[in-house]
């Protein structure tokens, strides 16, 4: 997995809002980093720029090792296709990449197993709880074997118990797979629990106010 370097990134929206002011971040390979801060501090804007979904007004974004990384994005809304089964929802990115079904199946089954949804392959989204839908959404992100996983408040709409379980399972997955993860949240506990590095942002204008490496005093699974 490549490193990501953001240099002097500014983002001003058409209405004049300064969403990001001089954002500088170097994100190491296989790092689990979170961006934390109040609503409106520019977290999503930063993530969208990293994903190539949003334009910066000025600045630079570089991927290390000359590699074009494979990115996957997980949003707060699981955004599943309601008419498709869990299996077909997870397979979607491979379907879009025109991978034949037979060839896709091993990766699909593996992804479903990784998020603990074995037995639900033929279920439809309406039959699943919010936490399970999020698991499908994560499986769909993993099925392409991404280098970098971008997560924007993925668990914010879930109850505390479900959120806790998902956090713990996400951490185990990261321990197995070691993608680079950039996790956006406004929950400081969640960021500290999950990440190796917490970048704290403030608003008006959106900027980084602290960048903290979390030591690992206990084994992380
Ligand atoms: P966060 O993810 O931390 O809540 P955002 O990146 O969504 O923050 O937003 C940063 C700032 O930019 C906020 O003030 C928000 O209202 C503003 N903003 C976001 N998107 C747009 C847009 N498309 N047009 C104008 N302003 C926007
Ligand atoms: P302690 O050693 O004090 O028991 P914990 O690791 O249990 O520490 O929790 C520290 C903080 O992290 C607590 O405020 C808790 O709410 C939060 N936390 C613990 N586990 C999770 C989780 N799975 N997801 C989100 N937050 C968590």
TrEMBL record:
SMART domains: AAA. InterPro entries: AAA+_ATPase (IPR003593), ABC_transporter-like_ATP-bd (IPR003439), ABC_transporter-like_CS (IPR017871), ABC_transporter_ATP-bind (IPR050166), P-loop_NTPase (IPR027417). It is found in: Cell inner membrane. GO terms for molecular function: ATP binding; ATP hydrolysis activity. Residues 4-221 form the ABC transporter domain. It is a peripheral membrane protein. One of its GO terms (cellular component) is plasma membrane. Keywords: ATP-binding, Nucleotide-binding, Transport. Belongs to the ABC transporter superfamily. Nitrate/nitrite/cyanate uptake transporter (NitT) (TC 3.A.1.16) family. This is ABC transporter ATP-binding protein. It comes from Phormidesmis priestleyi ULC007.
């Amino acid at each position: 997995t490549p490193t990501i370097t953001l240099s002097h990134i500014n983002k001003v929206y058409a209405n004049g809002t300064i969403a990001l002011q001089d954002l500088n971040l170097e994100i190491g390979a296989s790092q689990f980093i979170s961006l934390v801060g109040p609503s409106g501090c520019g977290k999503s804007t930063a993530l969208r720029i990293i994903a190539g979904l949003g334009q910066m007004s000025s600045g630079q974004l570089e991927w290390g090792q000359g590699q074009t990384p494979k990115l996957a994005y997980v949003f707060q809304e699981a955004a599943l296709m309601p008419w498709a089964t869990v299996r077909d929802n997870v397979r979607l990115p491979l379907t879009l990449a025109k991978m034949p079904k037979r060839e896709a199946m091993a990766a699909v089954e593996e992804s479903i197993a990784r998020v603990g949804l074995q037995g639900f392959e033929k279920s439809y989204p309406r039959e699943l709880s919010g936490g399970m839908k999020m698991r499908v959404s994560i499986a769909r992100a993993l099925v392409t074997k991404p280098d970098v996983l971008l997560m924007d408040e993925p668990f914010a709409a879930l109850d505390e118990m479900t959120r806790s379980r998902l956090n713990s399972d996400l951490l185990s997955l990261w321990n197995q797979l070691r993608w680079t993860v950039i996790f956006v949240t406004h929950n400081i506990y969640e960021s500290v629990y999950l990440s190796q590095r917490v970048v704290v942002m403030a608003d008006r204008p959106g900027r980084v106010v602290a960048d903290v490496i979390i030591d690992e005093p206990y084994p992380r699974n």
